[in-house]
Structure formats: C-alpha cells, structure tokens
Amino acid sequence: MSSGTDNDDGSHCSTPDSDGEVAEEIAIVAFERKMETAEEISDELADRYETIDILEYHGDVFEEFWGEYDCFVGLMASGIAMRKTAHLLDDKWDDPAICVVDEELTWAIPITGGHHGANQVAQDLATMGAVPAMTTASEAAGKQGVESRAKAMDAHVVNGDSTVKTNLAVLDDDLGPVARLEGPRAVLVGDDVTVLKRNTQNGIVVGTGSVSGADTEAFLAAWEEALEQTEYGFADVEFVATATRKAEEEGLLEAARELDLGVVTFDRETLLDHEGPTPSKSKELIGWPGVSEASAIAGGAKQELVLEKRSYENEVTVAIGR
C-alpha cells in the first residue's frame, strides 16, 4: 500500500541536498493492523515532504526498498527495525535514516541517520504529540550541530567526513559562527573544516532584533509588514538571522517554527563587521550594533540590504538582506 504527496511550498523538507541532511522522500512502514495510524501520520506530514509512501510490513520490506527513500518511519518496536536493517547499513552519508514511533504516538526515536533526516522526522512527529527522543550528541546537549546549521541556512555539507571534528568542537563550545567566503576564490581546507554550500543564491534573509519577551505574534506581524514593503514574500526567505544573545528568544523561535524557517545567530564581532547604516542605541549601551541590519547583511549571499530597519510596535525590528 502506498500513497504519494508532492510539495512545492518551499518547506524545510524540500530543499536540494547532496549529502542527505534533509529528508524529502519518506516511507512509513507499518503492520496491517496499524494502517489507520500510518494514514494519520501521512495526512499530518503530507505538506512537509515531497513524497510519503505507506508500505505494509513484511520480513524483507526494508531490504526491498533500501535506497529508494531518504527516511523510513517504522511504526513498530525499535528492535524489529534494528534487526531488519542492521545488515544493510554501510555509510551514514548514503544510508537512509530510520525513525521508529509507537502506535500510541508517544515516542519518536531516531535510530540511524539522526543528522540526516531522522531527527527532522521525529521533530515533525512531535506535532502529533510524540516526544522526539534525540540521542545525537549535539542535540542531546541542546546545541546546534553543523548539519543543523546547514539546514537552518538552507545549505548542505560538501565534505561530510569533517563533521566528526567540527561537531566535537560544537560540544566544546569551540566552533564559533559560520564564516562566509565569497568567490571567485580557491580555498584550501583541512579535515577539521566543514564546508557548507548554499542551495540557492537568490533568497533573502530576515534580520531580526527585539526587546526581551516579545511574543510570537509580534514577530510574525513584523516580518509580514516588512516583507510587504519589498517585492519578496515568505517563500523567498532563506532563514531568519539574529544575534547570539537572542538565541533563546522563545517568541522568535516559535514564529520561525510556524513558518518552517531556520534561525541563524551571529556573534557580536561578526555583527560589528557588518554594521548597517541606521544608528542604534544598543551600541552605546551594550556594545552591540543594530541587530536587524547587521544580521541581515551578514547572512545575505550578496551582503547587502534590501530594506533598512523597520520597527514594529517598539518590540521587534526587521531588516531584509540578500
């Protein structure tokens, strides 16, 4: 049994990806008695993936369809999925991801390929009440690994083997922000440098600052109002950019989640290097430049402003960069 859905809405699951960090085509593998739950999952996630198929479980189902999907969602005990796929695993960058979920949708457990689709699927299943049980080191520590940074920036990892060392640096708080290099130029890197390549060069970046505690609706309204003053819409947004000191701003994070956008943070030194034209009191008070303009410039592929800073209800400031 199978059902396919196509998605052209620009969601986080439909970005080009050469290294498998993002799942685009998934298969729900379920026993016949669990087909109703499988259909519920398919209906809930349909607009987030290019394809969702439902496969009825039999002993060789994983082997039969291995390599045809980015991620398998096993509606079954984790032991079954592990035993039936262990002999198929070869390379984490090529193998499909596997996430299991119980029939009551209590837990969503990435088994393999956490950074390559399984964590993403588990987070999507959270909208149905399942608790994502992340065991990848960076997520377990509450930190953003390099694969997650790539997804947030609508980019992909070029040299996958490097992520072992760079993710260790993430755990030690020693990686710092993503450095930007614009070409044409030749770059020589070692095996402890992860190279990210943008999936598109034509998107825009929504630089955002705020007072502490601004709510989700304020951010959504501010972004919409700012975009209305440009020729762009939400479908053109690559990601939301802000300062590291706003990394835990819950209203901003929830607004980005509602729009399926990644959030990229820049440290003070990076923002000072990309300071915008509008004066900001924060530089005098705390030594930070205006966050919205600086982060929009720092994040944009061309590092230029499309829209200078706009304030919404004295709570949220927005600038648009590209």
TrEMBL record:
Annotated ranges, domain CobE/GbiG C-terminal: 204-320
UniProtKB keywords: Hydrolase
Entry EC number(s): 3.7.1.12
Enzyme class: hydrolase
Domain Cobalamin synthesis G N-terminal: 61-139
Keyword presence, Hydrolase: yes
GO biological process: cobalamin biosynthetic process
Record carries keyword Zinc-finger: no
GO molecular function, one term: cobalt-precorrin-5A acetaldehyde-lyase activity
Pfam families: CbiG_C, CbiG_N
Source domain of life: Archaea
Gene3D superfamilies for the chain: 3.40.50.11220, CobE/GbiG C-terminal domain
Name of the protein in its database record: Cobalt-precorrin 5A hydrolase
Species for this entry: Natrialba swarupiae
Name of encoding gene: cbiG
